[in-house]
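S.,

Sequence below, as promised.
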Amino acid sequence: MKNFSRKEGAPMPTITASNLTQDQIKLDALMVAARANPRLFADLITAASFRKVRPHAFHKLMQHFLFTCFRAHKNVLIQAPPEHAKTSQIIPSLIWILAHDLTRKIGIVSRDKDLAEEHLMRVRKALTSATCASVFPQIVPDYNRSAADQGEWSKQKLYLVGQSAPAFECYSLFGQAEGHRLDTIWLDDCVTRNCLYSEAERRHVASAIFDTFANRLTDNGILLVTNNCWHREDAVHKMAESPSFATLWLGYENVDRMYFRISHPPEGWNEPTEGFLPLWDQWPKERLIKKRDEPGSAWKRLFEGKAISPEDVRFPGRDKWARWNWNDLTPSGKILAFLDPTGGRNAAKGDYGALILVLRRPDGTHDLIDCWVDRRPPEDQIAACFTLHEKWVRLGFHGIHRLEVEMLPKEELWIRKVFEARQEQLRKEGSPYWQLPWDVRHPSEPKDARIERIGPPLIQGWLRFPADLEDRIRDDYQGEHWRRLTEQLEEWPFNDHDDAPDALAGAMTVDQTGGVAIEEDTFAGVGIF
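The prediction came back faster than expected:
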């Protein structure tokens, strides 16, 4: 058979010692170059230790900007959309700086302690990689000093051999912040969604950053801040306005144009302070268009870099909501429920299924008494309806007087099957709570128009929330449901999801006159918990 892998008559290639030597020479030269080139070192570490990230013009700009600030001893703020590999570039940069000054002490701070510990784990992975050992053999992690119980590495501290204090240490923004002084503090995602709807939270975060951690810096120490865009009056925007911070701001003017703007550049910066960059191929145009067109998407905030101001939010914050107490509730009211179902994906992505219960009083006011907001399959969403129905019967009320489920005509068959199957199961088990009157509602107007209707009763006090709402949010059993509801309502229309506000609007418009009513004595003698 003819050999098509090489020209006929040509000798087969052979591997010789000289070939290996040439390859080794090239590799050694690459490692030597990385010792002096932080950008090359970052590329090598990223390829060896992190997810595969294709380098982009923004990363080159960020590295150049970052090290210019380090040389000028100036604080740095980098704002860029999520999933643009900021962390994968920052960690090698900090290691490169540490390699040139082994006495340097670096702190990693986040609003969520788990995120700070995750960053330290990635630092440890990079430091112990073969690539880092080849480029900087002087960096030797001290396994004994960094060890916790049974030889496991500490989640909070990482020591180097010969150093009395940890080279890296992670902190929660509101946790224990005492200890040795730090040369560099990396604050990542310290300003979070909580700052959107709470002025007290914005002040609390700013105080922790400027009054606590900034005071732990050495004389030439710097703050390195990476964050997404949230509220126009939060700590990130205070930094962007301050001359003590050099700011690199990245966003999308539209799906075709990625822009960067630099304010208060450090001494020695001779590059442009604004301009446009080519699109990153890891965020192709189709993906950007999808993000932009998603209902309730945070496109403007995250990708255009335009933060939210108080006047942008349609509804008042929870501190202005009217409240009800248990003594206010009366069994003479009617409990009406509305379920906005989702297609059944229970993974980390997708819409939420939302079930809202309101008590409608004879005068027409509404008390929001219960909710269920979660990513669960249809069977669990229907089960939640019966569970809350039983709960309020046991609390001495009549239970859900009427439930409406929103669905498109093509969805009605499968949801009806799921509902009737659950009802039949409870009936066979002898449960007295299987009678739950319900009906289908086909959407007939845009979602935004439905949610807008919440505004007047919410502002005028005709829609009331529990007086113990904050306690409910912290509850171990149902806290996540109440938290999702309040976040989606307070941030509307800027939250990525609006399923709970839509369900609340639906519950307030349930027609309590239609459907099959339950006899008043159906649950006689059941009693309260």
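Residues 1-17, 514-529 have pLDDT under 50 and may be disordered.

Coffee later?
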